[in-house]
Amino acid sequence: MNSRKSIEECRADFPALKRQRMGKPPIYLDNACTTLVPKQVIESIQEYYTEYPSCSGTRSRHWFAQEVNERIEGDPSKGIKGSRQMIAEFINAGSKKEIIFTLNATHALNLVALGFPFRTGDVVLLTDKEHNSNLLPWLKMQKAGRIKVDFIQPDAQDNFDLDAFEQRLKTGRVRLVSMAYTSNITGYTIPAKAITQIAHQYGALVLFDGAQAVPHQTVDVQSLDVDFLVFSLHKMCGPRGVGVLYGKKELLGQQPHEEDEIEQVLAPVIQGGGTVADATYHDYTLMLPPDRFEAGIQDYPALIASGAAVQYLQQLGLDRIRDHETSLNHFLTEELLNRYGDTGWFRIVGPQDAAQRGGILTFEVKRPNAPGLAADLSEKNNVMIRDGVFCVHAYFNEKFGPQWTRPIAHSEHRMVYRVSCYFYNTMEECRVFLETLDEIFKERGYI
After folding, report:
1. Domain limits of the chain?
2. 3-state class of 110 per DSSP?
3. What positions carry a catalytic annotation?
4. Element (H, E) at 125
5. Computed from CA positions of residues 352, 355, 357, 358, in that sequence, does the dihedral angle turn out positive or negative?
6. Does domain 46-314 have CATH number 3.40.640.10?
7. Whether the model pTM is above 0.85
8. Domain 7-30+317-443: which topology?
9. Where does the Aminotransferase class V domain start and stop, copy by copy (predicted)?
10. Which DSSP letter does residue 266 get?
11. C-alpha distances in angstroms, 72 versus 77, 85, 101, 130, 354?
12. pLDDT tens, 296-352?
C-alpha cells in the first residue's frame, strides 16, 4: 500500500475514523461483519437525494429519471459507465445483464434457492462452515421435500478435500454445489476454480457465496466458470441494503417465457412493477434479465453508490488490499501465539498460517467467564471486534455441542472472537488491540 494512496490518505476518506470517544479514536476490526464507508460513497448517496431524487428512466421519461438511469445503467454516448457495468467489470462478467441487484447476499442466495428448477431428489452440496444464509434456504427446501442437502467435510488439516469432493459427485445426484468462497469463520479460501471444474465434469452447477471474497481479492467469474456468484456491497465500503447476484446469461433467461419452459433457467420469485413487459387479466410477459429479477422501486441512491464503492476499491487495487490485510494478520498471529499459544486455553480457529486466512483471525478462549471480551475491548480502548457464532450456528454446535454458549459448569465457559482487518487498518491499531487484550486477560486472572 505504499504507492498511489497511502494508508493515512485512505483513512482520511472515512469520516467514522475521525470520531473520538474518551479522547481516543475508534479501532475498527469488525470488517468481516460490515466495513466503514468512505466519503466518496456517502457523497454519491447525498447527490441523489439533493440533485435527482426520482424513479429511474426505466419507469419515467423526464430529466431526473434520465440522470438516475445514467448512473445505474450508464450512457456510452456521454461516457457514463453506470454502476451495473462497473460491477460487471469488477468481477469480469460477460455482460452487465448478468448482474442482478438484490437487497444483500442473503436475498441473492434465496432467489437461487427458490427460483431454480430443482427436481425431487436433487442434492445441494455445501461445506461444513456455511453462513446461515447459505444453509437455511437449502434446509427449508429439504423440509419441503424438493431437494436433499449434503455436506463435504474438510481433510485432517481442515482444508478443502478435493478427492472427497469428487467422490461425492460420482456417487450422488448433486445438482448444485453452493459454497462460501472464503469462510467468515477462518478466512480460508476454497480452491474455487478446481471445484468448478470438477463439478461441471459431473454435471453439477456451482454457486459461490463471495461475501468474504469479492471485497478482498480478485474474483473473475469467467476464469472460474462459476454459474452463480453472490456478494454484498456493505462488506466492500458500499451502501447497506445492496447485494449482487451474478448468473450466467443462459441461466437467467433470454426469452420472455423461459421461466416456464427451460429446465436450467432461474425463475423470478418476486414479481410486480418493473419486472413485466405486458400483462392482461389472465397472463403476463416478463422483461428480460436483469429487470425481471428487480421487482418494485429500487434503492436508487444505494445502487448509484455501489458504483462509487467499486471504483474506490479498483483505484486501490485488490492485490494491494489483500497483501496489506495478510501482513496485519501475520503480525497479529505471531504475537498472539507467542503470548498465549502454549496456555492451553487459547486457540486460533482454522489454518495456523495467516497467509491462508487473509484478513480474518478467529480465536477461541476457554476460560471461566470467557464471554465479554469484545465489550471490554470496546469499553477500554474503542477496539471493535466480533464475538459469538458469526451466523454459523451449525458449525459451532457440531464442534462444541448444543447449548455450548450456556454451559452449566463454570470450567466449560468458552467464547469465540473474530478480528477482521481491512485496508484502512494499521499496525499501530493492531498493537493497541494486543495490549488491551493483554490488560483484560491480566485483570481476569488468565495470565
Report:
1. 7-30+317-443, 46-314
2. helix
3. 391
4. strand 122-127
5. positive
6. yes
7. yes
8. Aspartate Aminotransferase, domain 1 (3.90.1150)
9. 27-430
10. P
11. 15, 8, 11, 32, 38
12. 999 999 999 999 999 999 999 999 999 999 999 999 999 999 999 999 999 999 999
